[in-house]
Specification:
13 strands; alpha/beta; seven-stranded parallel beta sheet; 427 residues
Length: 427
């Protein structure tokens, strides 16, 4: 990303986030870190979001009213989101009618659809933060059958939404290619702004002393001296948790010394029960939800990190956090993993738990090599995946959208012929 000058006057941004912001995973972290860096660069950001979620200091968060029939809500696709999005539309409409904004920055496809109406109403630019295909996510969540009657309809809606914004920011370069290849989006509107990491926050020691780290491991039931394989993220099948547990079974069968620390939610009891049935008692610790503010301290307990995500369309920001913590990382060999890790990752065949076990074993058996990979991984993110760099690039996109369009005097000469236009393009 190029280094761009900071704008001289702050922009007022309405950020539409159709999710229960803030929760401690994925897209929420991107929304949070984008907001923080934009504030640091002088922008005023107002986040419109669902009624649930954690309030965070220093952020202006405007929430919808709760829906009376659905007080609890888990992550993932749900028909109840239609009600949530209707309320979010109303809340966002009241905001944009009552206050002045310079730009609408929408996350996820529902946000882009809502944001397009708001932007058109106020004649503002719309920026769409694209974090993966809507239909692919719904298929991953088993909410949509790719062979069913609804798939073509929703795919068509997704394609239409992708055409609405003035600019699309993608969470990976692979996602940018997906928009061009699969949705025929204008490449001039697509800007790859890959997920990034706060290097001051994610530090290798996690703020622990050696004694403190040992005590925390003991409190989690991790045997002393046993290498720790760490995972932090959502506990779902499309994130590969089932494959990870199968890999743990394979490593135990091979008598590989390792302990798995699986951090995150939901479905903790579901996967704990599966692990017990697989004979992994004493080999796996489920911590439950880890607040984002505590993520570095928990990750610092790991020796090796794993990113077994099966989805090929979504981002995987957790990998950058692992890298910043100097954790050597095993991942399924999918484009986003390759994009972030490059030659520093240890890759497994996608969806293959035995291959995942092989990759983990190779790192666990070579601690010096693993340490070298971890150290070089932090250097890689420092050079190309910091939020300071990403923030300046986003701001430069805002500048381009908000600068006055040049006034062109009508031409007094005839328009060039088709052959002349082609000649001009080659010059």
């Amino acid at each position: 990303m190029p280094s761009m000058p900071q704008n001289t006057s702050p922009y007022r941004i309405l950020m539409v986030a159709p999710t229960s912001f803030f929760a401690d995973y994925g897209c929420h972290v991107r929304i949070l870190e984008e907001t923080r860096i934009l504030q640091k660069l002088g922008c005023q950001v107002t986040i419109a979001t669902y009624y649930k979620g954690r309030d965070l200091p220093g952020l202006e968060i405007i929430r919808t009213r709760p829906v009376p029939w659905r007080e609890e809500y888990q992550v993932g696709s749900s028909r109840h989101k239609l009600g949530f999005d209707a309320l979010l539309s109303w809340t966002s409409l009241k905001l944009i009618l009552r206050r002045r904004f310079d730009l609408v920055h929408a996350h996820l496809h529902e946000g882009a659809l809502i944001g397009s109406v708001l932007a058109k109403l106020r004649r503002l630019p719309l920026v769409f933060d694209f974090q993966g295909s809507l239909t692919a996510e719904m298929v991953d969540h088993k909410f949509l059958d790719p062979d069913g009657a609804w798939y073509k309809l929703i795919r068509g809606l997704e394609t239409r939404i992708n055409c609405l914004p003035r600019a699309i920011l993608t969470s990976s370069r692979h996602a940018a290619h997906t928009l061009e290849r699969d949705f025929d989006c204008d490449p001039g509107r697509i800007h790859a702004v890959p997920d990034a990491v706060n290097l001051d926050f994610f530090r290798p020691d996690g703020g622990w002393s050696l004694a403190g780290r040992a005590a925390r491991k003991a409190s989690l039931g991790i045997p002393p001296g046993r290498p720790v394989v760490a995972y932090l993220g959502l506990l779902t099948e499309y994130q590969g948790i089932g494959k990870l547990l199968q890999a743990a079974v394979e490593l135990r069968r091979r008598d590989v010394d390792a302990h798995f620390m699986i951090m995150g939610y939901p479905s903790v009891e579901h996967y704990r029960h599966i692990a017990s049935n697989l004979g992994l008692d004493g080999w796996v610790t489920f911590t439950g939800k880890v607040p984002y503010e505590q993520a570095p301290r928990y990750l610092a307990l790991g020796d090796v990190a794993v990113a077994p995500k099966i989805s090929t369309t979504e981002g995987s920001g957790k990998i950058l956090n692992y890298m910043a913590m100097e954790l050597p990382t095993v991942a399924f060999d999918v484009p986003v993993s390759r994009e972030f890790l490059g030659g520093l990752g240890v890759y497994a065949e996608p969806g293959n738990s035995r291959s995942l076990a092989d990759a983990l074993q190779s790192l666990l058996a070579a601690p010096s090599w693993a340490k070298s990979l971890g150290q070089r991984s932090r250097q890689r993110v420092a050079e190309g995946y910091s939020w300071d760099q990403a923030g300046r690039y986003i701001l430069s996109i805002y500048d381009q959208l908000l600068q006055p369009e040049p006034h062109h005097e009508p031409s007094l000469t005839a328009s060039p012929s088709g052959s002349e236009r082609q000649k001009g393009k080659r010059l």
